[in-house]
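Lab channel / #folding
Pinned by the channel admin:
"Please post every new chain as: sequence first, then the structure tokens as a reply. Keep commentary short and put observations after the output so the thread stays searchable."

First post following the new format, from NK:
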Amino acid sequence: MELIPPGQRILNMVADGSISSAEALKMLAKAHYRLPLEREREGAREALAELEGLVGLQHVKALVRELCAFIEVQRMRREKGLAAEPLVLHMIFRGNPGTGKTTVARLLGKIFRGLGVLEKGHVVEVERADLVGEYIGHTAQRTRECILRAKGGILFIDEAYSLARGGEKDFGKEAIDTLVKSMEDRKNDFVLILAGYLAEMEWFLKTNPGLRSRFPIQLDFPDYDHNELLSIAEQILEQRQYTLTPQARKLLSNLLKRPEHSNGNARTVRNLIERAIRRQAVRLMSLDDISTDALQLLAAGDLEVEWQ
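Reply from TO:
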């Protein structure tokens, strides 16, 4: 998808004499535009390409493309003096660990920066322990500090449902209240993404009637199926310049079919390969002459040790 530089149409209108420089500045300020550098726009294009290259997640990719189009069209409408929808980009990510939630959040930071929506595009990753304090007022302070760190970027809270588990008297409620207030007071400063298991996040949204409406974008990250896990393994191996012997590839496929390992978790695949690489290193140290091919080849024995 081609990313149009934010505010470029306004600058073109100045160039052709349609509006004055003063009028352009007012239009840019009104639309909350920031003109990103070319390297930021290129970073957004690279992030979009990386997103498209991820295994699976078709629904997630489609929604991100939809968001990019929405942001651009609303910008065009503002530039033409038409009514435009507000950019409310706070999100809920639901899914098991290892299904790509954090990876997508990091890519969104780069994409939104390149579109001029976020000034920095960095991602601050926190959990309950980073937000909840030890006494009254401490939690609000710690939560605000995390929000300030995320200014111009994304605040990503993993296992966000844990903030509501303690009930009304738990300090987690104070964190939720502070987050909700900041979503209104600082709505153009940062994007909030709450992540966690599907069922737990659904329960979390029901604990506070006003929460669901504040997160117009809710994405489900399904577990990877067997073929997708194999594709993820191939991607990891290619990135690290390793290959599997035919026997190792067959063994990997069979191992991922076992009930205890077929949970659709990309981390399982990554951990397996990293352990195999370490086992290969031990095996190679027993050889007198180590060729370039040997350095890149993982054998069935390197994988078998992991699963015994």
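NK: The chain has 14 helices and seven strands.
TO: also worth noting, The beta strands are 91-95, 123-126, 154-157, 191-196, 217-221, 243-244, 297-298.
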